[in-house]
Amino acid sequence: MSLNPQVLGNALDEDLSLHTTLCRREAPAFQKACRSKDELVVACTQESRLFTELSEQTEGAVPLDVRPIHFVNIRETGGWGREGAQAMPKMAALLAAARLPDPEPVPTVTYNSAGRLLIIGPLDDSERIAGLVGDVLEVSLLATGGQGMQARRYPVIAGALEQVQGWLGAFDVQWRSDNPIDLDLCTRCNACVASCPEGAIGLDYQIDLAKCQDHRACVKACEAVGAINFQREPQTHSERFDTVLDLRDAPAFTQHAHPQGYFHLRGGLQAEAAMATVVQLRDLVGEFEKPKFFTYKQKLCAHGRNETVGCNACVEICSALAIHSEIKRNQIVVNPNLCVGCGACTTVCPTGALSYAYPRASEQGVKLRTLLATYAKAGGKDAALLLHSEEAGGALIGELGRAASLDKKAVRGVPARAIPVPLWHTASIGLDVWLSAFAYGASQVWVLMTGDEAPQYRDAVRAQMNVAQAIVSGLGYSGRHFRLIEAKDVKALDAELGDAPAQTVKRRGTFAIQAEKRATVELALDHLMQDSAAQRVPAEAIALPGASLLGSIEVNKDSCTLCLSCVSACPASALQDNTERPQLRFIEKNCVQCGLCASTCPEDAITLQPRLLLGEQRKQLRVLNEAQPYHCIRCAKPFGTLKGIEVMLAKLSGHAMFQGEALERLKMCGDCRVVDLYSNPGETRIHDV
What we know:
Helices cover 29% and strands 20% of the residues. The chain has a 5-stranded parallel beta sheet with strand order 6-5-4-10-11, covered by helices on one side. The protein has a 4-stranded parallel beta sheet with strand order 20-19-21-22, with helices on both faces. The chain has a 3-stranded antiparallel beta sheet with strand order 7-8-9, with no helix packed on it. 39% of the residues are buried.
């Protein structure tokens, strides 16, 4: 692997010495660094365990809980590629990012498991797996056929499974028992099996009622024990378990992301993931914590107003079914126990009401800005950020690097300008971060998905990237800047990383990514509009795809009565009224395209218009509709719109309650209406009844 310590040192503002066997004969140099209180970065992930142990054994070394060691891979990510000699700027960027502090801690979600495991499946497969975990777990079996062992080592539940819900430490399982054989009473003497003339009883000790012809020989054979009773009423049972292992063909949960603590192992011990699953089950005893990955701010949420649903993006995209609507409270609710931390909900949220908490968007922004600034300082050009998942994506990139080291003619490896950026999940960041990265100087942003992701995640990321591409293309930047890469093997990934560079910004942005999503989007747009002012084709607006969180609305003035119900429904204050005169006003910058105004409008007079309006008009109030005020026929005070009152009179003129004076009273303001009621001698009063 080619390394140039001078180029790397200049980019990192420090003197670097080159090591070739730091984990072997040059280990004393590492031990010397362990005694220093400075930040310690090791550019080798292969021997991270060895270096950690060596640090713990070094006398005078700073404890790891005081000064952790940061490991970074510069080998498979670029040094072993065909362009390894040109990868110094990328290596410098990766080393600089590795020195950044860990994300700030966030609240955690706690799971408590006492080790109660339920295995659902054929008895023979279930008992074999139970034998591998029974020494550390309290196992129960829910039989779905098969042949059980003669010795009853584990409690066996028989019946039809009706429901499984919950999560690690809190799975509530419900089943219905309607078989004549009670397994709690059954001694497994096999007398019923031998006596049944139809062979309707198997070694799961349940009667196949479709085969049974009512000879009742089994009842006579089991008379002493009394485990068989054809008159027993079906019963529904429920019990709580900490973990569930499901061996059936179809899982108990239909969603893409199963709850933590639930494992679907089709095929039993013959399955490829069998041993890994067994090891995981054995470890799931005790108290466990995970970060609370999301932050929810109801005030920003555009889900609903007045029990009317507007934006439902997060509910529809969640692959763990962790989000549901509480429209009566005008909000959504996220179950932190079911949340798997994918962050797709935060990507599609138009307002930023849901934001990714670990790491925060602001911390991701610091990392991206550090990567791109260091890359540029080291002389790198046309940087492409390759966003990938830590596990599957990181493993595939590692395979690509190793393949390139063996045969550079067949496989190119990771290009020198492609900077891998690991994420907890590739759907966890979206338009705000992508546009900011482009404003920071990235030529392109690529998101790698390896096939493990939920289908709706791929669709959502692709839709958001279409919006981002439409924006930068509309501003005059040439090339393809945002792309979703789908690859499951090395050859496919190697072929996908061959895009030509796209046009970058002339001046790199210096703004920081904010906690508020909309604020970040505005900062990025402001920078890009200023940067592209001289090169883009003048246009009033850029048309955007339908998934955009930017845009305007169109109001049908012929239908609109200026009832202003849309104003009260708007969660972002994009729609406003005018206290001086009947007007519907609009600030396009605030519009999140949630559709609440359109769904609330009683006249269906509003349609959404996804676009990016250029110029200062986007930030200013403008009038969408206005009307002539209607004046009270008694005091001449304006109290509504001429069109609104006329529509009301037309709808109520045929009603029996609004005839003669009652209809005229609708033409009065609220004060005059009350005065007229009390001063009219023809009105019936309560004391006259």
